[in-house]
Write a structure and sequence with these properties.
This protein is an alpha+beta fold. It has a single domain, classed as Aminopeptidase. 36% of the residues lie in helices and 31% in strands. The chain is built from 8 helices and 9 strands. The strands form 2 sheets. It has a 6-stranded mixed beta sheet, with helices on both faces. The protein has a 3-stranded antiparallel beta sheet with strand order 3-5-4. A hairpin with a 2-residue loop joins strand 4 (100-102) and strand 5. It is globular and about 55 Å long. It starts with 8 loop residues before the first helix and ends with a strand.
């Protein structure tokens, strides 16, 4: 469900405040997913910047927030100076997205998974209702529906440079652009929509 679909803003904020993240790298930046959900998700949704989708499960007869993802219809822009540094294999994978060169950048139509996270509150840890793969699959399914309506050739995301996340996204079919670090100092991975 989108963040404001069934709830008023005050009720939605109360639900969002039940979310707790964990770190996989030991860095505070991992808590950006929690900060985003609690402090920016409603505003971004109202402004049309991204759509935040909440995933609920049932535990002891109560509905609880178990995870979320935020997606945006946003092209991937790779400046030429970075594109030229990528291996030929990676450039080939990017070309599958139908990239257009404009203003010294390669632009590929697609969707950004801006945030994706599982709730690690004590209640959710006990319930064990969802996996990270389930959340990622739900985000991908939503993007495929949008792609069938509006077009778009790739889905991409940024993530912390840790082995666990490399493997997690790679196992789902994402290609990591190892030679490219985003302006946020994160890794970039993309996947062709099919």
């Amino acid at each position: 469900m989108q963040i404001l679909d069934e709830h008023g803003e005050e009720v939605a904020q109360t639900i969002l405040n039940t979310f707790e993240s964990i770190t996989v790298s030991g860095k505070d930046t991992a808590h950006d997913v929690e900060f985003f959900l609690k402090s920016k998700a409603i505003e971004f949704s109202k402004a049309g910047i991204s759509a935040t989708h909440l995933i609920f499960g049932s535990y002891r007869g109560e509905s609880i927030l178990v995870g979320y993802f935020a997606i945006a219809n946003r092209p991937l822009v790779i400046p030429s100076r970075h594109y030229k540094k990528l291996s030929s294999a990676i450039r080939g994978k990017i070309r599958f997205g139908g990239g257009v060169v404009e203003d010294n950048s390669t632009i590929i139509t697609g969707y950004l998974i801006g945030q994706i996270a599982k709730n690690y509150s004590d209640e959710c840890k006990k319930a064990k209702l969802i996996s990270g793969v389930d959340i990622l699959q739900s985000a991908y399914d939503h993007i495929m529906k949008a792609s069938n309506i509006t077009g778009g050739s790739i889905v991409y995301l940024e993530y912390e440079d840790v082995d666990f996340l490399h493997k997690f996204y790679s196992d789902f079919g994402f290609t990591n652009l190892k030679e490219y670090t985003t302006k946020n100092g994160l890794q970039l991975a993309l996947k062709k929509l099919k």
